[in-house]
Amino acid sequence: NGTTYVAIDSPPVVNSVSPVEIDSTAGGNATFTINGDRFGNGVQAKFVSNTGTELTPTSVTRVGPTQLTVVIPRNSFVNAQEPYDVKVINASGLSSVLSGQINVDQAPSWTTSAGTLATIYDNATGTHATVAATDADGDTITYSVTSGAVPPGTSLNSSTGAISGDPTDITSSTTSNFTITATAAGKTVNRAFSIIVNPGYDGSSSS
User: Fold this and answer.
1) What's the rounded Cα separation, in Å, for the pair 22 and 103?
2) What's the pTM value of the predicted model, to 2 decimals?
3) To pair with 176 at 20 to 30 A between CA atoms, which of 58, 134, 169, 200?
4) How far apart are the C-alpha atoms of 85 and 100, rounded to whole Å?
């Protein structure tokens, strides 16, 4: 430095980060592990959006020269600004960036209200009700019955959410309660529904 010899700092190296996907609507904090090399004392980390906005974590813990633990609120991330880069800055100001690492992927949301979907007769055919959910990321949504069951004789279309078929004949009004799970890119959301089936007037009994 003109007077004495000083140590020449080297920039940090960022090799990986985990997790690489976050749900910004889940609430609370997300904890990231950043792996690399030459992480010095006083090191800091940032998450940089595709618009250049830098997110400052709540805390950065230097586990050692090759690993950092970073905590940041999940709602700091914005879906429209993914993917986020990971930037590590040593106290000297030298930094390194690992680009396009973190995606914001939200769970699907229901557009069909919970509760009774339909009241039908046991001699009805065709589609009796259709459930629907949306996904902010545009991922394909699939539907499945994860508890209970749709009325016997009917089935749920996993692609369209339509419940159709010819219900099994009954002698008295029956309510089928069930939970349908909507899944998009591995993220799920559940909702409880029911369908009421009444006996139809088909000439098999006196009026």
Assistant:
1) 6
2) 0.66
3) 134
4) 5
